[in-house]
Each structure stands twice: as C-alpha cells, then as structure tokens.
Amino acid sequence: MVAGCGQQSAPAPKPAEPAKPAEPPKPAEPEEIRIGSWQPFTGALAAGGAMNKEGIDMAFEQRPKILGKPVKVIFSDNKSDKVEAANSMARLIEQDKVVAVLGCYGSSLAIAGLNVSEKAGIPMIPDASNPLVTEGRKFVTRLNYQDPFAGKVMAKYAVDKLGAKTAAIIQDVAQDYSVGLAQFFRKEFTKLTNNPNSIVAFVSYNTGDQDFTAQLTFVKSKKPDVIFVPGYSADGALLAKQAREMGIKTPLVGGDAWEAPELVQIGGKAVEGLIFCSHFAVEAAKTDKAKKFIDDYRKKYNKDPNCYAALAYDAYNLVADKLEEIKVVDPVKLNTALRSTKNWEGVTGTISIDETGNPVKPAIIFQVKGGKFVYMDTIQPW
Amino acid sequence: MTLDMFLQHLTNAVSLGALYALVAIGYTMVYGILRLINFAHGTIFTIGAYAAFMGIAIFNLQWGITYILAICFTAVLGMATEKVAYKPLRDAPRISVLISAIGVSFLMENLLIIFFGGRPKPFFRPPIFTQVLEIGAIMIPVLSFAIIIVSAILLVALTYLLYRTKPGTAMRALANDFETARLMAIDVDKTVALTFMVGSSLAAVGGILWALKFPQINPTMGGFPGLKAFVAAVLGGIGSIPGATVGGLILGLCEIMLVAFLPNLSGYRDAVAFVALITVLLLKPTGLLGEKGQVKV
Predict the structure, then answer these.
(1) DSSP states of A329-382 as a string?
(2) Which residues of B touch A206 (CB under 8 A)?
(3) B8 to chain A: closest CA residue
(4) Secondary structure element (H or E) that encloses residue A251, with its range
(5) Distance between CA atoms of A129 and A144, rounded to whole angstroms?
C-alpha cells in the first residue's frame, strides 16, 4: 500500500531538465526525548521560575543525552497565572508531546496545571508544597516536603527557639501554598503553646497587593511575640519594609518561598533577622554528589545554589535515571518508576517516595544576616 | 479600636488613596478629552518607573534628574504611541482604538520582559523618602507627605492648564465636539498629542511614586494600579478630574477601613473596590462627580 502510493505520487522524470546529482540519503533523524518545564517566568512568582530554570539548565548541560538520544527541554511560561498555567501545560502535552513535566514552582499554579497532566497521564515533578498537589493524584511525584511539615517546623522553631507565646499570621489568601502553611502553623502553634487563643491576629492579603499597612497596623495593636508571613519573596520584602517603617520590631518568620535573592535585594536592611525554612543548604551538604553540584553551580553561575535550583536539578536527574532504568520512553511506565523511587541519592538528600508521591526529608532553617542567608539548623521529621 | 490606631489607619488610607488618585487623574483626563479608555496607561506607568530605575541603576544619575528625565521620556513615548497606534484610527470605530491600545500595552510589556527579564527589581529610594515621622504613636513615612503634596500640585496644575490656558481650552473644545472643534481652526493633532503628553507624564509620576512607596518593580506591575485607577476614575465619574481624585481617595479609604474594622475579611480587600464601584454605579450611573449628558461612545 505504502509502496503503491509512493509510485503513484512520484513525478514523471522530465527529460528537458538536467539530471540532479543524487542527494545523499538523509540520516534517520534521531528520536529526541522531550521534557517539558512550565514555570512562572513572569509575574508575581517570576523569581521562583528563574531559580528552577537554573537548576534544570545545568542538569541538562551535564546530561544532554538519555538512553543515547538527545534531550530537548521545552520551557513554557505560565505567567504566574492560574488560567495560563492550565493552558501552558496543555501546550506542552498536546503540541510538544513531552514525556514528563518538571515544575512548576508555586502550589496554586501547580494545581491548576496538574489537572491537565493528570488527565493526560504525563508524570509531573512540581516544586510546590501544598498537600493538595499530591492528594489523590497518580501522576505527581514530589521531591520537597509538604506544607504541614513546614508549618509545624516553623511553629516549633518559634516556640522553642524564639520563646514565642503569641503569634500573628499574615497570609496570602490567593495562594494555596500560603493558606496551607498558615493553617498548619496555627494548628501546631496553638498545640505547642497549649493555648487556643495564642494566635492573636490572623489577617490576609491578595497576590499583587503591595500595601500591607492596614494589616500591619492591626497586627501591631495585638503585640504578638512573632509574626508568621507565609508568602513569596517579593511580598515578604515589601511587608518587612513596611513593618519596620511602622516601628514593628517583632521577629518575622516565613516559609520556604522566601528563599530568593529578591528578598534581600528589595528588602535591604528591613529583612535582617528574618527566619525561614528551606530544603537545601550549602553548609549542610554532606554527600560527594551534593558537593560536586555546589562546585559546578558556582563555576557556572558564580554564586551559591539555592534550594529551588537544587530541587529542579534533582528532578531532571531523577527523570533521566528512571528513563534509563525502564529503557523506554513511555510516560506511564516512567511514572510508575518515579513513584516507586527508593533510596535515590539526589543533591537535596536521599529520596524515597511514599505511596502518596511524597518524600520524607528534614527541613533547613535559614536566617538573614548581613544580607546573606545564614544556615541555622536542620530539623528532622518527627 | 483606639484613637491612635484609627488615626494610623486614616493616614495609611489617605496616603494610598492619593496614589490611586494620582494614577486615576491621568487615566480620566485622556478619557475625558478623547473618549478613549487607554488600556496602555498601566504600561506607560510601568515604563515611567523603569525609566527612573535605569537612570539610577545604569546611568548613575542623581535621583531628581532621573525622575525628570524619566517623565520626559515617558511623555515622548506617550506621544509616539498616539502617532503610531491611535492617530491612524481616529476615524475608525472606537472599538478599533481600544483594541489597538490593548495591543500597544502587550507589546510594551513584552519588550520590558525581553530587556529586563520577568524577575522583580529593587527600586532605589533616596534616603529622604525612607524616613518616618513619629507623631505620638502614629508613624507617617515622609513619602506619604510627598505623595499627597505631589498629587495636590498636579491636580491644581492640571485644572489650571485645562481652564486657564489656550491649549487647555482647545482640549475642552475637543472633549465637547471633535468635529466642530476641527472646523474652528483648532489644531487637532497638536492638541491630541499634548493630551497624551500630559497623560503620560502623569502616568510616569504615578509610576515613580508607586515604585518609591513599594520599592519593587516588574514588567507587569502596571496591571494592578491600572485597574485601581480605572475603578477610581469610574467611581468618581469618568472624565472628571476632581471625580478621579475623590474616587481614588474613597478607594483607599474603603480598602484600609475594611481591614481596620473587619480584619477577618482582609482577604476580600480587592473585592471592596468593586463592591464600591457597583454600588455607586447602581445609585448614580455617571459616577459620583460625573455630569449627566450623553456620552459619545
């Protein structure tokens, strides 16, 4: 049938034209492995997307081939917007035919996009911490710990190390990450202080808001021992600035999304002393693999790697390792392999994925000192 | 609530409201004269802030000079935009100009992303603007005074321009009747260009003050103030300059007082703007200070 068609459509040779030299047969184009990465490269969460990309870029440079086939990483900008997130995920799956998706940064965006990838059966490794990202999902594998743990860690740190008896919470009500963290912090803080009224103020803002004076005036009047602000880095910097300008000297405590250079660049002196949790610290890196990663990263980017670059680097390498393990480019089989990861050594630690798609990992505590993120503590899961 | 706390909230509200008002004035002026909802206003606002950022971060200029240059640059850019994107469509249906404005807005935003990247950048604050005055228990940033004073001066200057000068009279004539104004030997092109020049400079001043108050700039930063300015302008009666001022102040007051009196509802702060808008439009469709009369759309 195919041969028949070919014969039919072959043009009759025209004697008038000089015979063309026979073209050398084209080498069969090597089948490439397409890996997608959708990230917030613009908008409110842009810093997170850029940090993830640095990690993926480096991993790709070091490992441009998987199973002997060239890899193509396709980046897509979800513009920090939930609707755009679903669209850009659909583009990666339908047009670009990716075998797996790395990212994205930000729980609300991840949830919007993974409704698409879940249906299509494409495995995704998000850099998002809300429990809803993995709850009841089959195609999501996560390399970072979740909000319940981060919220507990920060509450414990506030009570044990800062001696806080009362706390105020300022959450970003438009972000699942922030709402989740706030909720788990509140639970743990009231439990640890043994006082159901120990959260003296619980107020909200919306992504994009830049004026926090009203919330801060209210919080100030309640005189809390600590203020928990589970938001993103640029918001945290602005909020810290406004708080210090209003004469609020209370310690500010946040979540892992504060770890971005923007926190210090924008916040300046106002962010000195801020405390937050993370997934990776240069100071806490013990394994050779992690040390090599830090060296390579410093050589390439001339700065220390942060947790988002490290997590994305791990995500790429885990996908590569699993593809080489199953020896076939198949999203479903890849997903099964990802979900059954046991004792895989990444740069952010040794990872075993449980039946819910989550790892169990310790939390790192950082404090801003002299414009730098200074390693304070490693807190093991309890 | 203590008196101190109330006064603190009130100062916060006036400071925020004045900033909204400032952005709304430029918005409403262009609409009032040309009946054009200038969707690019928010982007022009962003460009004003980026121009000031560049002056300091790249060319190392003194801040006062940078601001003036940024405002001039933005004014010229505003006029150029008008020449390229709106003038050829002057006789086309109004919807074409609206779409053109949206296009310009996207184009400029994306150019900013290409040149500066999507990540936010810190905006330099001259030391004078970082100081805070302590009056009793109330903390007032010096910048809040600056915003209120600048807004007031620009409001007076704009009113003077519109009602006491020849170009201003020409602008009002255009607002009244485009065709007849043209017949009365008014240089329409020049007057429209001037309108855009003034409107864009106002946007740039707004952008710079916004960046000083919230010292973080990114290419999409104009969306939020653009929306708030639109709401403020419609709330006060679109096309009316005192209306935009009142609208901006009311918006600031509503937002802050919601958080002050109902802190549990603080997440609904942005909704308040729209509830206020809908309420006013239901009771007085022309806005608070809007005049009755046929709107040429």
Answers:
(1) --HHHHHHHHHT--SEEETTEEE-B-TTS-B---EEEEEEETTEEEEEEEE---
(2) 267, 269-270
(3) A217
(4) none
(5) 7
Residue A179 in tokens: 């709402």
Q: What is the mean pLDDT of chain A?
A: 92
Contact B29/B202 with Cβ under 8 angstroms?
Answer: yes
For A22, A217, B12, B140, B162, the CA distances from A243, given in Å and listed in that order, are 76, 9, 13, 12, 41
Under a CB-based contact definition with an 8 Å cutoff, are residues A222 and A200 in contact? yes
| pLDDT computed for residue A6 by the predictor | 42
DSSP annotation string for A279-309 = S--GGG--SHHHHHHHHHHHHHHSS---HHH
**Residues 6 or more apart in contact with residue A121 via CB below 8 angstroms:** A139, A331, A332, A335
Inter-residue contact A263 to A48 (CB < 8 Å): no
- Are the C-beta atoms of residues A247 and B134 closer than 8 Å to each other? yes
Which of A207, A230, A219 lies closest to A158 in space, CA to CA? Answer: A230
β pairing state of A252-254 and A226-229: parallel
Helices B166-176, B142-164: inter-axial angle, 10-degree rounding: 80
In this predicted structure, what is the pLDDT of residue A2?
44
At A38, which helix (H) or strand (E)? strand A33-39
Q: What is the ipTM of this complex?
A: 0.90
Q: Which of A331, A340, A350, A343 is nearest to A124 (CA)?
A: A331
For A326, phi and psi rounded to 5 degrees?
A: -85, -15
pLDDT band at B1 (very low <50, low <70, confident <90, very high): confident
Q: How confident is the model at residue A28 (pLDDT cuts 50, 70, 90)?
A: low
Interchain contact, A245 vs B9, CB within 8 Å: no
Confidence of residue B113 (pLDDT cuts 50, 70, 90): very high
The DSSP secondary-structure symbol of A105 reads E
Interface of A with B (CB under 8 A): 40-43, 46-47, 49-50, 77, 171, 173-174, 201-206, 208-211, 213-215, 217-218, 221, 234, 237-238, 241, 245-247, 262, 265-266, 268
pLDDT in tens, A187-217: 999 999 999 999 999 999 998 889 999 999 9
Is residue A30 classed as helix, strand or coil in its secondary structure?
A: coil
Interface touch B132/A245, C-beta < 8 Å:
yes
φ/ψ of residue A12, rounded to 5:
-70, 135
Q: For B48, how many CA atoms within 13 A lie in the half-sphere containing its CB?
A: 30
Report the alpha-carbon distance of residue B118 to residue A79 in Å, rounded.
9
- The tokens describing A16, both together, are 């008038």
3-state SS, residue B183: helix
